[in-house]
Structure prediction request, 313 residues.
Amino acid sequence: MQDFYIPATAMSPEIDFRFSRHVLNIKGESYPENAAAFYNQVLSQLTLYLSSPEHKSIEVNVELKYFNSSSTKILLKLFEILNDAVHAGNSITLNWYHDEDDDTILEFGEDLHSDYERLNFNPIAISAA
Amino acid sequence: MDLEGFNEFRDSAHRQGILFFYSGYFSQNIIASMADAVRHRLESQAAKGSTTRKVFSTFIEMAQNIIHYSADHLTDETATDHEMRFGTVTLGRQGDSYFVVCGNLVPQDAVPHLSEKIDSIRKMSAEEIKAAYKETLRAETEASSKGAGLGFLTLARDSTQPIEYSFVNLPENGNAFFYLKAII
Prediction:
């Protein structure tokens, strides 16, 4: 399957899905006007990638500086899809980057972890520049 | 506006601790530019990182509420993208806390539902707000929402005091002016 790339804008993150290497990166800001429209294509690419019967070891890196409420809802959906993929026999590590003093993003990550226990959740604090 | 009027305006803004003010049409590109300005303004205040993040989040949620729901729009009522709607937003500092205030028109018939929604959040403790936030995040989205139905809960979650609001009915056009304030 072709790799999938969307460049970052001031309000939407860079999506760098290297399906060929099983590394999925999401990085930047996330407050698009219509979060559903932005993320729908991302979710459909992801679903397509995960639909292959091959069992994979996947690394997911999420490094979001800020995400608004409508993005939050869709991110939850994205992690649900990943968690289901673990049920289907894949192994997934989620590297969850958060600013060291951003407790909101860390807490959201921890909630994700308790909801989706099969993801190998790895919170990583980055120091504020 | 002559110099005297301009100075009065600036003095008044200064007295009220205003760090940022915008009144006009809101588009997503305008919000992105304001977000940049607001972030720099907050960083220059040397506030704690977590406070800066909460103020920033509040600012974006309010600005996007205007873009989605203001009754004064240039774009079609049913549009969900590339919208242009009129509103006002301001950010300021009073002592050790920040406030974000926004104002826009809403249809009068939306007032009871909005009041009910905000009143129920105003009564919640911080723990109850967190619980309601988690529950709403995992629930199906309300049909009337263009986002996640989480906007007011997100404001409440990031605020240190209950969010404040008022409506002023404008009988001449069937709208009401919606004032909303959060303190962080």
About this structure: Chain A touches chain B through 25 residues (CB under 8 Å). The longest strand of chain A covers residues 57-67. Residues 41 and 57 of chain A are 23 Å apart (CA to CA). Chain A has one domain: 4-126.
